[in-house]
Specification:
alpha/beta; 2 domains; 7-stranded mixed beta sheet; binds nicotinamide-adenine-dinucleotide; 359 residues; two-stranded antiparallel ribbon; Dehydroquinate synthase-like, alpha domain; single chain; binds glycine
Amino acid sequence: MRLQVALGERAYEILIGEGMMAVESTWHSMPIGETAMVVTDNHVGPLYADRLRDTLAALGVQTAVHQLAAGEQSKTLASWAAIMDQLAEERHDRTTTLIALGGGVVGDLAGFAAATWLRGVRYLQVPTTLLAQVDSSVGGKTGVNHALGKNLIGAFYQPSGVVADLDTLSTLPTRELVAGLAEVIKYGIIRDAKFFEFIEQQLDALLAGDTEQLGRAVVRACEIKAEVVAADERESGLREILNFGHTFAHALETLTEYAELNHGEAVAIGMVMAAELSVAEGWLAASVRDRIMRLIQRLLVLERLPKGLSIDEMIEAFQSDKKTRAGRLRFVLTRGLGHAETSEAVSQERLRKVLERFL
Ligand code: NAD
Ligand code: GLY
């Protein structure tokens, strides 16, 4: 399957399918040049870097590899600097293409490295987690975390192409599959009630790693993401809906120093909180919240909600959210399946009441 992200001169293709990485024709439509650097992590590199490198070698592309330690704790300026060091030491010039081979951590970091090396070189996304295939590899948000908040340092910088090889999902740990499914559910809530129904019906197959159903989910999620990004590349309005549940999620991740929850788990919990806040604000019927809750409960992540967090520290952490304007907290809420909007005026009192129910 071939999708387009319609961004004028920054337009690019998303290729989705089984075995895409090892097929030479995949790369014919991807701009690479003669030299590439694959950025990957120490889980994904040993599994897939040789496969990618061999395919590219057959096409005459010389490929260096930069491998970092897996996990959110690597999404730092120090990891970015290590990529810069290797690029400089190996004398990579503006014709080098960076290739992000891995999950969202590698994708965000390699994208930011591409945005900044020599003021910008081309990069491709080869996402290997479900989360990265349905979300982070598309849309050009790149960056790293700061101790005071997630993704605070970064750039909008679009990739030149995305290759989502569904075969890579076969080695994904269940916990990471679940994390990706959280983002898949998000698309149903914010943009497509029928897709939400599809997920309700197919969740067992998706959780079991059924490639056909996962493929359908990746395609629909990418269609929605591509459409939203094409309409609002720099998040001045509509794109904010992609952050449904994320204000809560980023606070949970930051307060637990990225050590207790992965991003998708935090998003799953955050979406339940956002649905509850939507009801409290009078936007959403309790019956729809219950339906969202029932689906997310099937992911078995709600029990991972970190213990011992206080309402005050959550509210303090919300201040670092990129949607905050002059200290005014803004939340993406839902008015019903398939519809989300940013609320400009969430009542602090109701927000506290919602948090009380969970913490
Ligand atoms: P991740 O990159 O940490 O990957 C999760 C784990 O799975 C890692 O241990 C990784 O090594 C391993 N892994 C990856 N692919 C594998 C495979 N095929 N087989 C076996 N193991 C594999 O996490 P993630 O969930 O992919 O991404 C989360 C990150 O993405 C967060 O930093 C989040 O902020 C970011 N994100 C960015 C955007 C965006 O628009 N740029 C959107 C959503 C999330
Ligand atoms: N994941 C949110 C976005 O890409 O805008």
